[in-house]
Design a protein that fits this description.
single chain; alpha/beta; Aspartate Aminotransferase, domain 1; Aspartate Aminotransferase, domain 2; 2 domains; 3-stranded mixed sheet; globular; binds pyridoxal-5'-phosphate
Amino acid sequence: MAITNQNIIYLDNNASTAVDDRVIESMLPIFKSNFGNAGSDHAFGWEANEVVDIARERIGDLLNCKPSEFLFTSGATEAANIGILGFCKANKAKGKHLITVRTEHKAILEPVKALEKEGFTITYLNVDDCGMIDLQELDTAITDQTILVAIMLANNETGLIHPIDAIERIVHDKGSALFCDITQAVGKIKVDLDILNIDLAVFSAHKMHGPKGCGALYMNRKNKLKLNSIFYGGGQEKGLRPGTLNVPAIVGFGTAAYFAKAELKDNIDKMLALRKILEANLEEIEGIIIHAKNNKRLPNTVNFAVLNIDGGKLLRRLNKIAVSRGSACNANTVEPSHVLTAMGFSNDTALASFRVSLSKETTSSDIEFAILNIKEAIYSLQKMTA
Ligand code: PLP
């Protein structure tokens, strides 16, 4: 099924995904009849609590963790704030040094920046031109004051996958804790939290065909973590995320997790096959760079730059597909992507870089259509500048 809005093909699935029909179906009864508060001590409340527990089981099943190891939040951003700020406030007597990477999502960089203002020292690891950190640099950066290292599993702009197994060994050998943003990886690659042995992780329903406004913070039970609450209210979600649970969204999240697990292999194969066709066609174009092409990447993500072309003009010509420039925009300015500039690309190249992100719903005709639009757009601009 082509996902279209006014005949525009949707290829921005790392920004958000369409909600799976089966997810919507599972949520509808919760709005209509099972609308009780999961905290209420009567039949409506018990029923709400029961469906929340089923969702917890399903998410735990997808990620191979216990249902009691995560709490529900409004998304990955909120989960990251609760996890990073809560952990650092609870453990600051041990040290006030944090390590993260220049290419992390703003959901991680901004809470880290807030801690810097409160007197924490931050080391920002550099990356190479593929977005990969240097493990030796990480090892050297960890001191006896380092309480937390925050490194994402898969990058939202390039799809690059970090070697979290090796990172985990380094971080734990040095006695620090590992926070990992797994938002883009869940549902696109196998994520086994038991094997990964991360301390804290965050993820979000709307990146995996679930509803918006629902995410989770995972806390590894084996590593006995201490977190201070940054919110105050009722005691929901271990007191760390107080407030009435968003039961319909949580149920949708659980359904999305169920199908993500059941269909993971098929979805990966399908997205990889389409990505291969897209990349083979892109490589026929002169001046194209596919970022992190030879690295381990998410099966759905292609981020390409076109050299010697005005990114703004190209964006206006890519008017038949919804893709992302990986840049923060406001009314007057367009910022080059902090990920691509950290990888050493110039502002111009970053602004002429486009992320195409597929989903399980992307079809081969969507990709053919996208290839036509991209080729026509680039060739016409190249002809004008020749
Ligand atoms: N982390 C990554 C890697 C993301 O791609 C996103 C979403 O753009 C987030 C965190 C934030 O997720 P949410 O929209 O659930 O707050």
